[in-house]
């Protein structure tokens, strides 16, 4: 058949044929095209910028003075996002009403909240968990105890004396090892009994009182359950029957004081039983619950119960970090620490944060200002360096309203500088001055103007004092300057302004 393009019937047939072929091709290509993935969960900080959950694993720092809205604004937004995504969350508390804040958030997101604290049936035997939990070991328990020693001596102004830290940590390490090898357990009450019954003098080794004590019973048990050619058995026996008694009274006294200073936090006071082995009618709660998607709130506010609460939250935090890293990549889990300076462990936290992304662990830390953090780390130049390193490792920084000059100047410099055009003008008194004419050279000026470029900070320190704090007077909106390492926002800068709506 000869197609005549001038024939309208022929042209129409050709058009229909081409259309059919085009339609068929479209369907064929559409069938091969992969379906679009649903958008990833995002934390929207303004109309154009958002942060993904994956980016949150790089670490989050929220800072702002009291009443700045840092908790009811950005922290609430992050917590709600994680709750909606069924992430496991460990929530540490600072104030007595924090539990109500987290409970309302769980109800709002249709999640169950597990409360760990006074009046709850849950117990966390952290030391035995570190020894015998998934992937646990003596080394893991010893590492945890070493961090507690560092917290104790730092809080007493002794953080720079490495000798006492190491000596006290070694005493605890060998005590835990002896208990574990002898009895297959090493809970806090057992460890306290063992440490307080160690011989103080070599002459005490033959006394009936020491021989009937828990330390002597443990050493006898070691000889029964360990081979005689076991080097570890010899090390443990020599330490507690020879090396320890022969130390000078002053050395033993300092080590003993540091050791008991830690253990007493878990032995006396209203919170002590929370970290003992669970008894009948009590439920053992461990980080595995968080890894399985539970939201667990540690209702032991540090500003109410002081050092014992601080220690309990520290062991929960460290145990959670280690458990998340051992399990490898999985569903995101988070640790939220309000007043994070109280449980900050710079050396430990920095090592953990370096691998959080691969483990899907999100660490959200909330502090008021940098001087408070430096003070909590022991003060001085070393603490200043540790504080700055701790902040640097948290890639997402949300800076709310703050009246601290040091903190504002620090973040102003951190956000960087750019070349800015500055104009300088002069005009003799009483003379009229035409700026446009001067710039264009249209007439003889009676003044002058000059322009020059200078490197200046992009965000002045005073800008942080002008952030909105939320509340009815601000339409329930909290504003903050948001920065992320290596991220360029929609405004073309490494920082942007975030808007966080408070829940009524």
Overview of this protein structure:
The chain is an alpha/beta fold and 504 residues long. The protein has three domains: 42-123 and 286-415 and 461-501, Rossmann fold (3-Layer(aba) Sandwich), CATH 3.40.50; 126-266, no CATH class; 418-457, no CATH class. The chain is built from 21 helices and 15 strands. It has helices at residues 8-32, 53-56, 71-84, 98-108, 126-132, 138-155, 162-183, 188-196, 208-211, 214-225, 231-246, 249-263, 287-291, 302-305, 307-327, 346-353, 356-359, 370-376, 380-392, 405-414, 435-440; strands spanning 42-44, 50-52, 60-63, 88-92, 113-117, 122-123, 283-284, 295-299, 333-337, 361-367, 396-399, 417-426, 448-457, 477-484, 495-501. α3 (71-84) packs across α4, α5 (126-132) packs antiparallel against α6 (138-155) and α6 (138-155) packs across α12 (249-263). The protein is elongated and about 105 Å long. The termini are far apart. Residues 1-6, 8-18 and 24-38 have low confidence and may be disordered.
Topology:
Blueprint: H1 8-32, E1 42-44, E2 50-52, H2 53-56, E3 60-63, H3 71-84, E4 88-92, H4 98-108, E5 113-117, E6 122-123, H5 126-132, H6 138-155, H7 162-183, H8 188-196, H9 208-211, H10 214-225, H11 231-246, H12 249-263, E7 283-284, H13 287-291, E8 295-299, H14 302-305, H15 307-327, E9 333-337, H16 346-353, H17 356-359, E10 361-367, H18 370-376, H19 380-392, E11 396-399, H20 405-414, E12 417-426, H21 435-440, E13 448-457, E14 477-484, E15 495-501
Parallel strand pairs: 3-10, 3-11, 4-8, 4-9, 5-8, 6-7, 9-10
Antiparallel strand pairs: 1-2, 11-14, 12-13, 14-15
């Amino acid at each position: 058949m000869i197609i005549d393009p001038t024939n309208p019937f022929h042209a129409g047939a050709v058009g229909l044929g081409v259309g059919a072929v085009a339609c068929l091709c479209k369907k064929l290509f559409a069938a091969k095209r992969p379906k679009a993935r649903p958008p990833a969960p995002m934390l929207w900080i303004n109309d154009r910028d958002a942060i993904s959950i994956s980016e949150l694993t790089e670490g989050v720092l929220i800072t702002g003075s009291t009443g700045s809205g840092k908790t009811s604004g950005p922290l609430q937004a992050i917590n709600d996002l994680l709750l909606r995504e069924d992430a496991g969350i460990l929530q540490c508390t600072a104030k007595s009403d924090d539990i109500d804040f987290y409970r309302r958030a769980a109800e709002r997101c249709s999640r169950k909240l597990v409360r760990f604290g006074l009046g709850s049936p849950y117990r966390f035997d952290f030391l035995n968990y570190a020894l015998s939990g998934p992937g646990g070991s003596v080394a893991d328990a010893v590492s945890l105890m070493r961090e507690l020693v560092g917290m104790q001596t730092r809080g007493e102004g002794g953080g720079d004396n490495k000798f006492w830290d190491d000596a006290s940590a070694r005493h605890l390490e060998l005590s835990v090892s002896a208990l574990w090898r002898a009895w297959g357990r090493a809970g806090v009450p057992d460890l306290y009994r063992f440490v307080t019954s160690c011989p103080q003098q070599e002459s005490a080794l033959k006394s009936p009182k020491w021989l009937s004590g828990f330390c002597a019973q443990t050493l006898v048990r070691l000889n029964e359950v360990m081979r005689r050619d076991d080097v570890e058995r010899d090390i443990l026996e020599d330490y507690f029957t020879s090396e320890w008694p022969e130390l000078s009274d002053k050395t033993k006294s300092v080590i003993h004081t540091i050791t008991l200073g830690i253990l007493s936090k878990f032995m006396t006071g209203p919170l002590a039983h929370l970290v003992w082995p669970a008894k009948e009618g009590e439920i053992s709660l461990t980080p595995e619950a968080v890894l399985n998607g539970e939201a667990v709130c540690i209702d032991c506010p540090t500003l109410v119960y002081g050092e014992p609460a601080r220690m309990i939250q520290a062991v929960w935090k460290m145990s959670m970090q280690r458990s998340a890293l051992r399990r490898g990549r999985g569903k995101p889990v988070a640790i939220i620490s309000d007043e994070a300076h109280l449980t900050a462990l710079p050396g430990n936290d920095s090592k953990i944060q370096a691998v959080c992304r691969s483990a899907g662990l999100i660490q959200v830390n909330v502090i008021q200002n940098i001087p408070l953090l430096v003070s909590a780390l022991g003060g001085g130049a070393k603490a200043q360096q540790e504080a700055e390193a701790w902040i640097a490792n948290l890639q997402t920084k949300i800076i709310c309203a703050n009246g601290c000059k040091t903190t504002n100047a620090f973040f102003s410099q951190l956000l960087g500088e750019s070349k800015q055009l500055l104009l300088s003008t002069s005009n003799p008194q009483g003379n009229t001055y035409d700026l446009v004419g001067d710039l264009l050279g249209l007439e003889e000026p009676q003044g002058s103007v000059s322009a020059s470029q200078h490197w200046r900070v992009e965000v002045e320190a005073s800008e942080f004092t002008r952030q909105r704090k939320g509340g009815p007077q601000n339409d329930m909106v909290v504003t903050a300057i948001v920065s992320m390492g290596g991220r360029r926002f929609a405004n073309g800068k490494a920082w942007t302004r975030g808007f966080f709506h408070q829940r009524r």
